[in-house]
Amino acid sequence: MKVGILTFHLGPNHGGYLQAYCLHEFITSLGHDVEFINYKNEGHHKSEIFRPWIYRRPFKLYQAWIKEKVFQKAYKTLKKSEFTTDKSKVNWNQYDVIVVGSDVVWDYNMSRLGNDSVYFGDFGLEFKGKLVSYAASCGTVDINKEIPEYVTKGLSNFDHFGVRDVTTQTIVERSIGIVPQLVVDPTWLFIEPNTEKEKIPILLVYAYDVPEAFSVKIRAYAKKHQLKIVAIGYYHGWADVNEMRMSPLEWASVMRKATAVVSGTFHGTLYAIRCQTRFVTIYNKTIEVRVKRPLELCHLEHRMLKSPEDFEGVMDESIDYNSILETLNKEANSSKEYLKSVFTGTMQ
Known about the structure:
Rossmann fold; 2 domains; 4-stranded parallel β-sheet
Protein backbone atom coordinates (compact mmCIF):
# COMPACT_ATOMS: atom_id res chain seq x y z
CA MET A 1 0.00 0.00 0.00
CA LYS A 2 0.96 3.62 -0.50
CA VAL A 3 0.96 5.21 2.96
CA GLY A 4 1.24 8.88 3.84
CA ILE A 5 2.18 10.03 7.35
CA LEU A 6 0.79 13.43 8.34
CA THR A 7 2.64 14.67 11.40
CA PHE A 8 5.02 17.35 12.69
CA HIS A 9 8.22 15.99 11.18
CA LEU A 10 10.14 19.17 10.34
CA GLY A 11 10.66 20.88 13.69
CA PRO A 12 14.26 21.36 14.95
CA ASN A 13 13.62 18.95 17.79
CA HIS A 14 15.36 15.60 18.36
CA GLY A 15 12.33 13.88 19.86
CA GLY A 16 9.93 15.24 17.26
CA TYR A 17 12.15 14.00 14.46
CA LEU A 18 12.53 10.56 16.06
CA GLN A 19 8.81 10.02 16.63
CA ALA A 20 8.28 10.56 12.91
CA TYR A 21 11.31 8.46 11.94
CA CYS A 22 10.28 5.50 14.13
CA LEU A 23 6.70 5.46 12.84
CA HIS A 24 7.98 5.53 9.25
CA GLU A 25 10.42 2.71 9.98
CA PHE A 26 7.80 0.45 11.54
CA ILE A 27 5.16 0.89 8.83
CA THR A 28 7.86 0.36 6.19
CA SER A 29 8.83 -2.88 7.94
CA LEU A 30 5.28 -4.12 7.28
CA GLY A 31 6.03 -3.96 3.56
CA HIS A 32 4.35 -0.68 2.62
CA ASP A 33 5.56 2.25 0.53
CA VAL A 34 5.67 5.05 3.10
CA GLU A 35 6.39 8.76 2.86
CA PHE A 36 5.73 11.89 4.89
CA ILE A 37 3.09 14.23 3.56
CA ASN A 38 5.27 17.32 3.52
CA TYR A 39 2.60 19.79 4.52
CA LYS A 40 2.71 22.49 7.17
CA ASN A 41 0.24 25.37 7.51
CA GLU A 42 1.56 28.86 6.81
CA GLY A 43 1.56 30.00 10.44
CA HIS A 44 3.34 26.86 11.62
CA HIS A 45 5.87 27.16 8.81
CA LYS A 46 6.67 30.80 9.60
CA SER A 47 7.11 30.01 13.29
CA GLU A 48 9.80 27.43 12.52
CA ILE A 49 11.75 29.23 9.81
CA PHE A 50 15.27 30.01 10.98
CA ARG A 51 15.27 33.71 11.93
CA PRO A 52 18.81 34.97 12.62
CA TRP A 53 17.60 38.50 13.46
CA ILE A 54 15.95 37.37 16.73
CA TYR A 55 19.33 36.54 18.30
CA ARG A 56 20.93 39.49 20.08
CA ARG A 57 24.20 37.73 20.88
CA PRO A 58 26.41 36.41 18.05
CA PHE A 59 27.34 33.36 20.12
CA LYS A 60 23.70 32.26 20.48
CA LEU A 61 23.12 32.92 16.80
CA TYR A 62 26.07 30.66 16.00
CA GLN A 63 24.71 27.89 18.24
CA ALA A 64 21.27 28.13 16.62
CA TRP A 65 22.77 28.16 13.13
CA ILE A 66 24.72 24.95 13.86
CA LYS A 67 21.57 23.24 15.11
CA GLU A 68 19.63 24.40 12.05
CA LYS A 69 22.27 22.91 9.74
CA VAL A 70 22.17 19.58 11.62
CA PHE A 71 18.42 19.30 11.25
CA GLN A 72 18.35 20.39 7.63
CA LYS A 73 20.72 17.50 6.93
CA ALA A 74 18.52 15.11 8.93
CA TYR A 75 15.38 16.22 7.08
CA LYS A 76 16.98 15.26 3.78
CA THR A 77 17.11 11.61 4.89
CA LEU A 78 13.31 11.46 5.29
CA LYS A 79 11.24 10.20 2.38
CA LYS A 80 8.66 12.91 1.82
CA SER A 81 6.45 14.58 -0.76
CA GLU A 82 7.04 18.06 -2.17
CA PHE A 83 6.75 20.70 0.57
CA THR A 84 3.70 22.96 0.61
CA THR A 85 1.68 25.16 2.95
CA ASP A 86 -1.38 24.83 0.69
CA LYS A 87 -3.50 21.72 1.27
CA SER A 88 -4.92 21.95 -2.25
CA LYS A 89 -1.43 21.27 -3.62
CA VAL A 90 -1.25 17.85 -1.90
CA ASN A 91 -2.29 14.83 -3.95
CA TRP A 92 -4.21 13.25 -1.06
CA ASN A 93 -5.79 10.48 -3.10
CA GLN A 94 -2.47 9.00 -4.16
CA TYR A 95 -2.42 7.36 -0.70
CA ASP A 96 -4.28 4.17 0.17
CA VAL A 97 -3.91 5.01 3.85
CA ILE A 98 -3.12 8.27 5.62
CA VAL A 99 -1.81 7.99 9.18
CA VAL A 100 -2.25 11.16 11.26
CA GLY A 101 0.19 11.41 14.18
CA SER A 102 2.19 11.02 16.32
CA ASP A 103 2.74 14.35 18.16
CA VAL A 104 0.34 17.07 19.31
CA VAL A 105 -1.30 17.32 15.89
CA TRP A 106 -4.76 17.67 17.51
CA ASP A 107 -3.90 20.42 20.02
CA TYR A 108 -6.51 22.96 18.94
CA ASN A 109 -5.46 25.29 21.78
CA MET A 110 -2.24 26.05 19.90
CA SER A 111 -3.13 27.97 16.76
CA ARG A 112 0.52 27.95 15.66
CA LEU A 113 0.66 24.14 15.62
CA GLY A 114 -2.54 22.24 16.07
CA ASN A 115 -5.39 24.57 15.16
CA ASP A 116 -5.48 23.18 11.64
CA SER A 117 -8.45 21.23 10.31
CA VAL A 118 -6.18 19.38 7.86
CA TYR A 119 -4.97 17.15 10.71
CA PHE A 120 -8.62 16.26 11.28
CA GLY A 121 -9.04 15.04 7.72
CA ASP A 122 -10.19 18.29 6.11
CA PHE A 123 -8.29 17.87 2.85
CA GLY A 124 -10.62 20.02 0.75
CA LEU A 125 -11.83 17.00 -1.20
CA GLU A 126 -13.31 13.57 -0.65
CA PHE A 127 -10.54 11.26 0.48
CA LYS A 128 -11.04 7.80 -1.02
CA GLY A 129 -8.55 5.92 1.11
CA LYS A 130 -8.45 4.90 4.77
CA LEU A 131 -7.86 7.59 7.39
CA VAL A 132 -6.38 6.49 10.72
CA SER A 133 -4.59 8.06 13.65
CA TYR A 134 -1.56 6.77 15.50
CA ALA A 135 -0.50 8.25 18.84
CA ALA A 136 -2.17 11.56 18.01
CA SER A 137 -2.43 13.91 20.98
CA CYS A 138 -4.55 16.90 21.96
CA GLY A 139 -1.68 18.09 24.12
CA THR A 140 -2.66 21.03 26.35
CA VAL A 141 -6.39 20.98 25.56
CA ASP A 142 -8.73 21.43 28.54
CA ILE A 143 -11.21 18.54 28.41
CA ASN A 144 -13.80 20.57 30.35
CA LYS A 145 -14.11 23.23 27.67
CA GLU A 146 -16.26 23.16 24.56
CA ILE A 147 -14.85 21.20 21.64
CA PRO A 148 -14.73 23.19 18.37
CA GLU A 149 -17.17 22.10 15.71
CA TYR A 150 -14.43 21.49 13.15
CA VAL A 151 -12.79 19.02 15.54
CA THR A 152 -15.97 17.02 16.11
CA LYS A 153 -16.77 17.08 12.39
CA GLY A 154 -13.21 16.15 11.47
CA LEU A 155 -12.92 13.21 13.85
CA SER A 156 -15.93 11.60 12.17
CA ASN A 157 -13.74 11.26 9.03
CA PHE A 158 -11.48 8.69 10.69
CA ASP A 159 -11.77 4.95 10.21
CA HIS A 160 -9.59 3.97 13.18
CA PHE A 161 -8.20 5.72 16.24
CA GLY A 162 -4.97 5.18 18.14
CA VAL A 163 -4.11 7.94 20.62
CA ARG A 164 -1.32 8.27 23.16
CA ASP A 165 -2.97 9.83 26.21
CA VAL A 166 -6.19 9.74 28.21
CA THR A 167 -7.02 13.39 27.50
CA THR A 168 -7.13 12.72 23.76
CA GLN A 169 -9.08 9.51 24.33
CA THR A 170 -11.65 11.54 26.28
CA ILE A 171 -11.87 14.26 23.62
CA VAL A 172 -12.57 11.70 20.89
CA GLU A 173 -15.17 9.91 23.01
CA ARG A 174 -16.94 13.17 23.86
CA SER A 175 -16.87 14.24 20.22
CA ILE A 176 -18.11 11.15 18.41
CA GLY A 177 -18.83 8.48 21.03
CA ILE A 178 -15.89 6.24 20.11
CA VAL A 179 -13.28 5.22 22.68
CA PRO A 180 -9.88 5.12 20.90
CA GLN A 181 -7.20 2.56 21.64
CA LEU A 182 -4.32 3.85 23.73
CA VAL A 183 -1.03 3.22 21.95
CA VAL A 184 2.60 4.01 22.70
CA ASP A 185 4.54 6.82 21.12
CA PRO A 186 6.38 5.55 18.00
CA THR A 187 9.72 5.88 19.79
CA TRP A 188 8.56 3.03 22.05
CA LEU A 189 7.79 0.68 19.16
CA PHE A 190 11.45 -0.38 19.24
CA ILE A 191 12.40 -1.58 22.71
CA GLU A 192 15.58 -3.55 23.32
CA PRO A 193 17.79 -4.17 26.38
CA ASN A 194 20.58 -1.64 26.88
CA THR A 195 23.73 -3.71 26.48
CA GLU A 196 26.16 -0.84 27.06
CA LYS A 197 28.70 -2.30 29.51
CA GLU A 198 30.33 0.98 30.45
CA LYS A 199 28.50 4.25 30.83
CA ILE A 200 30.12 7.51 29.78
CA PRO A 201 30.63 9.79 32.83
CA ILE A 202 28.24 12.47 31.64
CA LEU A 203 25.01 13.94 32.93
CA LEU A 204 23.01 14.68 29.79
CA VAL A 205 20.61 17.64 29.94
CA TYR A 206 17.83 17.81 27.37
CA ALA A 207 15.44 20.61 28.30
CA TYR A 208 14.20 23.88 26.82
CA ASP A 209 14.47 25.64 30.14
CA VAL A 210 15.92 24.68 33.53
CA PRO A 211 14.96 26.77 36.58
CA GLU A 212 17.94 28.12 38.47
CA ALA A 213 17.11 26.11 41.60
CA PHE A 214 17.34 22.91 39.54
CA SER A 215 20.58 23.95 37.83
CA VAL A 216 22.19 24.39 41.25
CA LYS A 217 21.19 20.85 42.23
CA ILE A 218 22.32 19.45 38.87
CA ARG A 219 25.76 21.05 39.17
CA ALA A 220 26.17 19.80 42.75
CA TYR A 221 25.14 16.28 41.75
CA ALA A 222 27.51 16.22 38.77
CA LYS A 223 30.41 17.47 40.90
CA LYS A 224 29.75 14.86 43.60
CA HIS A 225 29.62 12.02 41.08
CA GLN A 226 32.39 13.38 38.82
CA LEU A 227 30.11 13.75 35.81
CA LYS A 228 30.49 16.22 32.97
CA ILE A 229 27.26 18.15 32.30
CA VAL A 230 26.46 17.99 28.59
CA ALA A 231 23.49 20.00 27.32
CA ILE A 232 22.25 18.86 23.91
CA GLY A 233 20.05 20.86 21.55
CA TYR A 234 19.25 23.70 23.97
CA TYR A 235 21.88 26.06 25.33
CA HIS A 236 22.47 26.28 29.10
CA GLY A 237 25.31 28.55 30.18
CA TRP A 238 25.95 26.60 33.39
CA ALA A 239 26.61 23.30 31.55
CA ASP A 240 30.20 22.11 31.00
CA VAL A 241 29.49 21.45 27.33
CA ASN A 242 26.74 22.68 25.00
CA GLU A 243 26.44 20.36 22.01
CA MET A 244 24.45 21.61 19.02
CA ARG A 245 26.07 19.44 16.35
CA MET A 246 24.37 16.21 17.39
CA SER A 247 21.87 14.66 14.98
CA PRO A 248 18.71 12.97 16.33
CA LEU A 249 20.15 9.47 15.85
CA GLU A 250 23.43 10.49 17.52
CA TRP A 251 21.43 11.98 20.40
CA ALA A 252 19.60 8.68 20.89
CA SER A 253 22.92 6.82 20.94
CA VAL A 254 24.43 9.13 23.57
CA MET A 255 21.27 8.80 25.65
CA ARG A 256 21.97 5.06 25.92
CA LYS A 257 25.52 5.67 27.10
CA ALA A 258 24.93 8.52 29.56
CA THR A 259 25.29 7.87 33.27
CA ALA A 260 22.33 10.12 34.07
CA VAL A 261 19.78 12.23 32.20
CA VAL A 262 17.86 15.37 33.15
CA SER A 263 14.90 15.86 30.85
CA GLY A 264 12.46 18.70 30.49
CA THR A 265 10.64 17.27 27.48
CA PHE A 266 8.22 14.49 26.63
CA HIS A 267 10.53 12.63 24.27
CA GLY A 268 13.56 13.20 26.47
CA THR A 269 11.69 11.30 29.19
CA LEU A 270 10.57 8.54 26.82
CA TYR A 271 14.07 8.03 25.46
CA ALA A 272 15.62 7.95 28.93
CA ILE A 273 13.23 5.10 29.74
CA ARG A 274 13.69 3.39 26.38
CA CYS A 275 17.47 3.52 26.88
CA GLN A 276 17.17 2.30 30.49
CA THR A 277 19.05 5.28 31.84
CA ARG A 278 18.83 6.81 35.31
CA PHE A 279 16.86 10.06 34.91
CA VAL A 280 14.85 12.90 36.39
CA THR A 281 12.24 14.91 34.52
CA ILE A 282 11.71 18.55 35.43
CA TYR A 283 8.00 19.28 35.57
CA ASN A 284 6.43 21.74 33.20
CA LYS A 285 2.78 22.23 32.33
CA THR A 286 3.16 21.70 28.59
CA ILE A 287 4.30 18.07 28.96
CA GLU A 288 2.25 17.09 32.04
CA VAL A 289 -0.64 15.39 30.22
CA ARG A 290 1.52 13.69 27.62
CA VAL A 291 4.12 12.28 29.97
CA LYS A 292 1.64 11.16 32.66
CA ARG A 293 0.64 7.83 31.10
CA PRO A 294 4.17 6.68 30.12
CA LEU A 295 5.43 7.39 33.63
CA GLU A 296 2.45 5.63 35.19
CA LEU A 297 2.92 2.56 32.99
CA CYS A 298 6.47 2.26 34.33
CA HIS A 299 5.59 3.26 37.91
CA LEU A 300 8.01 6.16 37.62
CA GLU A 301 5.66 9.08 38.29
CA HIS A 302 7.82 10.24 41.20
CA ARG A 303 10.73 10.93 38.85
CA MET A 304 8.96 14.02 37.48
CA LEU A 305 9.89 16.71 39.98
CA LYS A 306 8.21 20.02 40.66
CA SER A 307 10.73 20.85 43.38
CA PRO A 308 14.52 20.40 43.20
CA GLU A 309 14.74 19.36 46.84
CA ASP A 310 14.36 15.66 46.04
CA PHE A 311 16.66 15.73 43.02
CA GLU A 312 19.63 13.82 44.41
CA GLY A 313 17.55 11.18 46.19
CA VAL A 314 15.42 10.45 43.14
CA MET A 315 18.35 10.46 40.72
CA ASP A 316 20.30 8.03 42.90
CA GLU A 317 17.34 5.68 43.25
CA SER A 318 17.81 2.55 41.12
CA ILE A 319 15.21 1.64 38.49
CA ASP A 320 14.04 -1.94 37.92
CA TYR A 321 14.30 -1.84 34.15
CA ASN A 322 13.89 -5.61 33.79
CA SER A 323 10.33 -5.30 35.04
CA ILE A 324 9.73 -2.11 33.07
CA LEU A 325 10.90 -3.75 29.82
CA GLU A 326 8.24 -6.45 30.24
CA THR A 327 5.57 -3.75 30.49
CA LEU A 328 6.96 -1.75 27.59
CA ASN A 329 7.18 -4.76 25.31
CA LYS A 330 3.59 -5.69 26.12
CA GLU A 331 2.41 -2.16 25.33
CA ALA A 332 4.56 -1.95 22.21
CA ASN A 333 3.27 -5.28 20.91
CA SER A 334 -0.33 -4.18 21.43
CA SER A 335 0.39 -0.97 19.53
CA LYS A 336 2.08 -2.88 16.71
CA GLU A 337 -0.96 -5.14 16.42
CA TYR A 338 -3.15 -2.05 16.13
CA LEU A 339 -1.07 -0.77 13.22
CA LYS A 340 -0.94 -4.18 11.53
CA SER A 341 -4.71 -4.56 11.77
CA VAL A 342 -5.25 -1.13 10.21
CA PHE A 343 -3.47 -2.26 7.06
CA THR A 344 -4.78 -5.83 6.92
CA GLY A 345 -8.38 -4.85 7.54
CA THR A 346 -8.75 -7.08 10.61
CA MET A 347 -9.64 -4.22 12.98
CA GLN A 348 -12.92 -4.91 14.74
